[in-house]
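Long-time lurker, first post. I've been practising inverse folding by hand and with some scripts of my own, and I keep getting stuck on stretches where the structure tokens seem ambiguous. Below is the full token string for one chain I'm working on. Before anyone asks, I'm not after the true native sequence, just a reasonable design that respects the backbone. If someone could post their per-position residues I'd love to compare against what I wrote down in my notebook.
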């Protein structure tokens, strides 16, 4: 049995689909009772557990030998993951595939890298088998501004430099491989897409796929942060996002890793494919 936390989320939902395709016994976890039926309809077990509830987390892990652990970017995410790791250990789980972020290490200088590193070290110390899934920016983040792209014909670029965006489905596929195949214990997988794209590159792909003229306009850090806070992101988390974006103009988010193709034996998905599949979201 594999328990998937964050099973309705950006990486967890495609992971559940992939695990079911592979035919394994899968248990999907949500904190929202209204999502249970939809999860069950996929053909998996579905259970309710909040990251703040140790007993529910332990029930979610009972009988599972592997888990996928992801939380939203949240000020409490280190505590939430610590609760889930403790529950996994108590329930007899053997292997935790932990979603963190590219650059997470004890040497990290940025807030997200430090936060994620703390959890990675905690998991190592737990004695459980571990695999770290460390992605760069998700292509799915572009959907956050799909409405304004459709309305204004403008992509607002808060990065200002090349970024090797990854499709969350590739993250899910690598996680599925780590959960179901041998050889992934003790590995940290830095994951990127196959190309480094600037705001202008993204606008060009959006224009080509939608058949409309979409331009890129810079978004100042304070405006990016205000938009995230208006979307109910916590102030400190939005500040950490802006801090991460600040290294893009120096090219630090543009390096390409080959891990997706190394692990999956197929190329990583390109932005053009992602935009084409989500074309309707970017047109009015
Ligand atoms: N977005 C990016 O570009 C990016 C890049 C690199 C790393 N990351 C990292 O990736 C992680 C986010 O991954 P993701 O996008 O797959 O996650 P997500 O979609 O943001 O969240 C996963 C799920 O967590 C569940 N959840 C929320 N609060 C909960 C609670 N209190 N208890 C239990 N479950 C709860 C929600 O599902 P329910 O409502 O069903 O409970 C949600 O669907 C973060 O750690 C972030 O730092 C993100």
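-- Answer (accepted) --
I ran through it position by position. Result:
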């Amino acid at each position: 049995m594999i328990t998937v936390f964050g099973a309705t989320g950006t990486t967890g939902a495609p992971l559940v689909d992939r695990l079911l395709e592979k035919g394994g016994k899968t248990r999907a976890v949500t904190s929202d009772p209204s999502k249970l039926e939809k999860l069950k309809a996929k053909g998996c077990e579905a259970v309710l557990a909040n990251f703040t509830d140790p007993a529910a987390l332990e029930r979610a892990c009972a009988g599972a030998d592997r888990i996928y652990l992801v939380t939203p970017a949240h000020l409490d995410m280190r505590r939430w993951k610590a609760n889930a790791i403790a529950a996994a250990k108590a329930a007899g789980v053997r292997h935790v595939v932990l979603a963190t972020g590219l650059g997470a290490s004890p040497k990290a200088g940025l807030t997200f890298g430090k936060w994620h590193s703390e959890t990675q070290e905690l998991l190592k110390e737990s004695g459980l088998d571990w695999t770290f899934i460390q992605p760069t920016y998700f292509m799915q983040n572009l959907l956050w501004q799909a409405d304004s792209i459709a309305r204004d014909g403008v992509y607002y670029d808060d990065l200002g430099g090349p970024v090797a965006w990854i499709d969350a489905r590739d993250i899910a596929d690598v996680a599925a491989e780590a959960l179901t195949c041998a050889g992934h214990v003790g590995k940290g997988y830095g994951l990127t897409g196959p190309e480094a794209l600037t705001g202008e590159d993204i606008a060009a792909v959006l224009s080509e796929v939608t058949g409309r003229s979409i331009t890129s306009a810079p978004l100042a850090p304070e405006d990016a942060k205000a938009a995230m806070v208006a979307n109910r992101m916590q102030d400190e988390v939005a500040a950490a996002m802006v801090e991460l974006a600040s290294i893009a103009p120096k090219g630090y988010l543009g390096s390409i890793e080959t891990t997706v193709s190394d692990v999956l034996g197929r190329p990583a998905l390109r932005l053009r494919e992602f935009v084409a599949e989500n074309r309707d979201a970017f047109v009015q």
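A couple of notes from the structure itself: The two ends are 43 Å apart (CA to CA). Residues 6, 8-12, 30-32, 35, 50-52, 70-73, 77, 99, 101, 112, 135, 137-138, 141 surround NAP (CB under 6 Å). Happy to go over any region you disagree with.
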